[in-house]
Amino acid sequence: MTQITMNPLKIGDLIIPVPIVQGGMGIGISLSGLASAVANLGGIGVIAAAGIGMLESDGRINYQQACVRRLREEIRQARSQTNGVLGVNIMVALTNFEELVKTAIEEKIDIIFAGAGIPFDLPQLVPKSSKTKLAPIISSAKAASVIIKRWWTKYQYVPDAFVVEGPKAGGHLGFREDQITHPDCQLEAILPQVIEETNSYKDQFSQDIPIIAAGGLWTGEDIFNIINLGAFGVQMASKFVATDECDASIDFKNAYIQAQKQDIGIIKSPLGMPGRAILNDFTAQAQDGKKTPYTCPFHCIKPCDYKNSPYCIGLALVNAKNGKFKGGFAFAGANAYKAEKIEPVKTVFQKLKSEYAQAAKNISKSQALSR
After folding, report:
1. pLDDT tens across 1-42, in order?
2. DSSP per-residue string spanning 42-100
């Protein structure tokens, strides 16, 4: 019997054999180790640029330079370990967004994923000779339309892809708190709207804009179902935390394994937006107002009002990355509690492929019985 497999993801001249993008997880969770492992298995491995300079010994005194230096090193390290497709995730809200984009392009990264804000002028930073692809991360059809019109009018550039992220994702969310559980804002609702919006430009540009679905996807069956809704591929982040190759500490990985469904909830970030995390004593104290403002050593994110923030989110996340949960917390997707054990990325890919194939067989069988 012919094995049922996922179709490759095509982004311009990039061919990704397995249509899985490993989502970028900032402040040291997804670096060259995880990214190269995913790329070697045919997906897109992604290095997260957010807070990357905090991992350097001089991060507190030379934060901007440390970020550029460490990002360059991580890209080069990943390249030395894989011939696969590599990307970087760079938050638009970062104070050094432009410098990090330029660094990634200098290092000939395959694709840049840009979220946490609308990257209005991202094409301006890309030389015409560059082959680096640009993929904004969005949460609505309106955002897709705004970016397409802006990029085409001002730069004659069409987005190479979009990542559509639903409200079940981990980390900072592109939704108001009242939208997070609203049926109209779920990934399955917004994905078709984005596809319809981008398809309306198909004739004008004579090219597809591949849509990658993200947020709460956990199994191969999830991948099958969302691709059946029209997605070209998927982005999965939390799924890859409990792996041997993830760059976080063993304590961070174990936080996922030990988490129960009720332990994952919504917090209000110092940035003024909701985020999804594994709740702990630190988040409870912050919620109760027991955390005190902290002098900012980094000024890493533009909208952060550090003088009135209850804590430094950068330090909280780097503490968690290192397993120091008394001083921080872990961001996590809605289904992160389903992590059961730490295993190789190769095993994760094998399971996802097997689950995908089984879901396809189940549908075929169901359709045959209904005839």
Report:
1. 446 789 999 999 999 999 999 999 988 899 999 999 999 999
2. TSEEEEE-TTGGGGSTTTTTSHHHHHHHHHHHHHHHHHHH-SSEEEEEEETTBTTHHHH
Kindly state the DSSP code that residue 219 receives in the 8-state scheme.
S
Answer yes or no: are the C-beta atoms of 244 and 285 closer than 8 Å.
no
Angstrom distance (rounded) from CA 48 to CA 25: 5
Which tokens belong to 69? 């230096």
First to last CA, the chain: 22
171-203 tens-digit pLDDT: 888 888 889 999 999 999 999 999 999 999 988
The amino acid that residue 188 corresponds to is E
Nearest CA-CA partner of 67 in 295, 237, 298: 298
DSSP string, 121-170: TGGGGS-TT---EEEEEESSHHHHHHHHHHHHHHH----S-EEEE-TT-S
Contacts for 44 with CB less than 8 Å, ≥ 6 apart: 9, 16, 20, 21, 22, 38, 84, 85, 86, 87, 110, 111
43: phi then psi, degrees, rounded to nearest 5 = -95, -170
Distance of CA 291 to the CA centre of its chain: 28
Alpha carbons within 13 angstroms on the beta-carbon side of residue 86 total: 29
The pTM of this model reads 0.92
Residue written as tokens 């970020």? Answer: 67
Report the candidate in 221, 168, 166 with the shortest Cα–Cα distance to residue 193: 166
Lowest mean pLDDT among 26-30, 107-111, 238-242, 348-352: 26-30
* Domains of the chain with CATH codes: 15-248+340-353 (3.20.20.70), 251-327 (no CATH)
CA distance 104 to 249: 25
- Whether the pLDDT of residue 302 is over 60: the answer is no
Contact 286, 317 (CB under 8 A): no
Of 106, 114, 147, which is closest to residue 130 (Cα–Cα)?
106
Quote the CA–CA distance of 119 and 56 in Å, as a whole number: 27
Beta-bridged to residue 137, according to DSSP, are: 163
Neighbours of 98 (CB within 10 A): 14
